[in-house]
């Protein structure tokens, strides 16, 4: 094998192996809704696909996904928002029957290293309320508007 081709193959594999990585998975209550935050590091501009699922009674149920089909019982209650390095699942009307092990699965297009997966156990009585400040940070346009308005408020 030509040494130049060998180096190119090694560099391609190393680059693909570092496309994205889930950094953190957390859950909190936002009113009557469950919010599951899946924070990741993405080192590629390739499109990202996701899947949120729950395992309960030893069975996986897809809640919301761009990888496979969501189950009917969650379709009208779940939505997902994507921000820079953050995918958020919102499950409306969260009850104890929705408790279980939640999974976030991410895959970058053309990433041949496999999907990134993290799990979190969600029990309604043990969930904390979502912090108001973290909601502001996720929507940076509100934070920017607030910061730009400060000089006007001081006048």
Automatic annotation (TrEMBL):
SUPFAM superfamilies: Immunoglobulin. It holds the Pfam family V-set. It is found in: Cell membrane. Gene3D superfamilies: Immunoglobulins. InterPro entries: Ig-like_dom_sf, Ig-like_fold, Ig_V-set, THY1. The keyword Cytoplasm does not apply. Keywords: Cell membrane, Disulfide bond, Glycoprotein, GPI-anchor, Immunoglobulin domain, Lipoprotein, Membrane, Pyrrolidone carboxylic acid, Signal. Residues 33-106 form the Immunoglobulin V-set domain. GO terms for molecular function: GTPase activator activity; integrin binding. It is a lipid-anchor; GPI-anchor. Residues 1-19 form the signal peptide. GO terms for cellular component: dendrite; external side of plasma membrane; focal adhesion; membrane raft; myelin sheath. The keyword Cell membrane applies. One of its GO terms (biological process) is regulation of cell migration. May play a role in cell-cell or cell-ligand interactions during synaptogenesis and other events in the brain. This is Thy-1 membrane glycoprotein. It comes from Upupa epops (Eurasian hoopoe). The gene is Thy1.
């Amino acid at each position: 094998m030509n040494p130049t081709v060998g180096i190119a193959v090694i560099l391609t594999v190393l680059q693909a192996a570092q496309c994205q990585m889930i950094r953190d998975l957390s859950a909190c209550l936002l009113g009557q809704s469950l919010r599951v935050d899946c924070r990741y590091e993405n080192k590629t501009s390739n499109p990202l696909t996701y899947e949120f699922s729950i395992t309960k009674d030893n069975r996986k149920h897809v809640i919301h996904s761009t990888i496979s089909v969501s189950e009917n019982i969650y379709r009208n209650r779940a939505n997902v928002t994507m921000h820079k390095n953050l995918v958020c699942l919102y499950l409306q009307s969260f009850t104890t029957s929705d408790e279980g092990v939640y999974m976030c699965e991410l895959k970058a297009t053309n990433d041949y290293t496999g999907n990134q997966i993290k799990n979190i156990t969600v029990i309604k009585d043990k969930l904390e309320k979502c912090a108001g400040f973290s909601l502001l940070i996720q929507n940076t346009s509100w934070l920017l508007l607030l910061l730009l308005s400060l000089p006007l408020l001081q006048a």
